């Protein structure tokens, strides 16, 4: 690709050639005016209007026309004002149509044709300058669009990554935390009721490792959710077909009332399952030994589940918790256009999920 200075000097060289070709028949004044106009073109990018004003005398008094036309082209590529460009085009056309005495000596038709030709000659560099400027602006606009697309692509990648991180955090919390907390509770119970010191020591070790694992898991979930956004579901996901095994292995006394019909949407089933799972995990952590009541209800328009527990039957274990489970349940409900609320009750705690019903 040619350097920019070549394009700057090429028009000056053409104007100099035009001046040299007309120098044989030019007077010293005409030659001087043409030479000054040619040299002034070197500054046309910095002072386009001034250079055009310097080139106009050369257009009037000499046969050299390129300096004025090149200066007018530069003005057309620099300014947007249509009235300014139209006025300068008219001035250059009138200068190009001189000498007026000889022009007026001919017929009116020839005079009119001379003015038309002069106007077309003057308008050509203006339109060419406008075209060049438009092309330059379009190139800049295309670069901006390409840059915006690149930014959009990066944002999409970041959003996708954040969504996947949040999904992973949710699954770690819902699945791993549930199992590890159950291990910790079982180990604590074994430690209290073990008949021999060896079993108590092993149970104590298992409980300590489980608590440490839960603490590390809490930090991992916090890190994964730090840049997360509202997630979508991962597959495969549990449904209410796995609800009875979940209750049976939860280590919590549960009274289950009601059930959902088989035609309820899979997303609603997963949300109900995860809500019950998280509620049972929280009962094991914060209210061990408490009895839990699960009410599942449905109408033609919505499904709901309520999990309530009474007071704890024994002191709670000090297990790590970052409360991401309740946040995740609320997010699930919002994604499905439902609602979620939780809070303490006299002597216990209550969790309620409501979702609009969809069918499979």
Strand order in space, largest sheet: 1-2-3-5-4
Rounded to the nearest angstrom, the distance between the terminal CA atoms is 63 Å
Q: Report the structural category.
A: alpha+beta
Number of beta strands? 5
Radius of gyration: 43 Å
Helix and strand string, N-terminal first? Answer: HHHHHHHHHEHEEHEE
| Amount of beta strand | 5-15%
Q: How helix-rich are the residues, as a percent range? A: 55-70%
- Main sheet, how many strands, which sense, barrel? 5 strands, mixed
Shape: rod-shaped
Count every helix, treating DSSP H or I runs of 4 or more residues as helices: 11
As residue ranges, the low-confidence spans are 100-107, 229-235
**Average pLDDT taken over every residue:** 77
Describe the secondary-structure layout.
Elements (H helix, E strand, L loop, with lengths): L3 H18 L6 H13 L7 H14 L4 H13 L3 H16 L2 H5 L3 H86 L3 H29 L17 H6 L5 E4 L8 H21 L5 E7 L3 E8 L14 H12 L3 E7 L2 E9 L4
Parallel strand pairs: 1-2
Antiparallel strand pairs: 2-3, 3-5, 4-5
Helix pairs in contact: 1-2, 2-3, 3-4, 3-5, 4-5, 4-7, 5-7, 7-8, 7-10, 10-11
Structure notes:
- With 360 residues, the protein is an alpha+beta fold.
- It has helices at 4-21, 28-40, 48-61, 66-78, 82-97, 100-104, 108-193, 197-225, 243-248, 266-286, 324-335; strands at 254-257, 292-298, 302-309, 339-345, 348-356.
- The chain has a five-stranded mixed beta sheet.
- The longest helix is centred in the middle third of the chain and has 86 residues, at 108-193.
- The chain starts with a helix and ends with a strand.
